[in-house]
């Protein structure tokens, strides 16, 4: 359902720690077993019900296994400097900006506008 390259992701299962869910989801979607995922920020937006949807963003450089696609979609390695040239999911570049900036930790969709969402990075 994504309109281009996007990070693997998913949901936390009952009784599962956030870091455990990251390790499981990465394995299910890529075939890689990651170690030491580090929380690098959150992405969130208000729901029409008054609640809030929150996405925890992790990254790691430690993994084993061979990259393989799954029912979730096709996966591939790309050079980091080539990412802006790819067809990306709608918020990948600003999300990566937040994840890479040592002084940023939140990607916030404040509210909907006629042109989409008003976004801020804190």
Write the layout of secondary structure elements.
Layout: H1 18-30, E1 33-35, E2 38-46, E3 52-59, E4 62-64, H2 92-100, E5 106-113, E6 116-121
Parallel strand pairs: 2-5
Antiparallel strand pairs: 1-4, 2-3, 5-6
Offer a quick outline of the entry.
This protein has 122 residues and is an alpha+beta fold. Helices cover 18% and strands 30% of the residues.
Could you characterize what this model shows?
The longest helix has 13 residues, at 18-30. The chain has 122 residues and is an alpha+beta fold. β2 and β3 (52-59) form a beta hairpin. The strands form two sheets. It has a four-stranded mixed beta sheet. Strands 1-4 form a two-stranded antiparallel ribbon. The protein has a single domain (18-121), classed as Alpha-Beta Complex (Nucleoside Triphosphate Pyrophosphohydrolase), CATH 3.90.79. The protein contains two helices and six strands.
């Amino acid at each position: 359902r994504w309109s281009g390259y996007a990070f693997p992701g998913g949901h936390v299962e009952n009784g599962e720690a956030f870091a455990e869910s990251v390790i499981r989801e990465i394995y299910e979607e890529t075939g890689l077993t990651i170690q030491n995922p580090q929380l690098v920020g959150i992405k969130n937006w208000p729901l029409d019900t008054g609640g809030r949807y929150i996405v925890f963003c992790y990254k790691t450089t430690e993994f084993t296994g061979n990259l393989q696609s799954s029912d979730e979609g096709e996966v591939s390695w790309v050079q980091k400097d080539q990412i802006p040239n790819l067809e990306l999911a709608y918020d990948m570049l600003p999300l990566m900006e937040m994840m890479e900036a040592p002084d940023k930790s939140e990607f916030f969709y404040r509210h909907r506008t006629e042109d989409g969402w008003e976004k801020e990075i804190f």
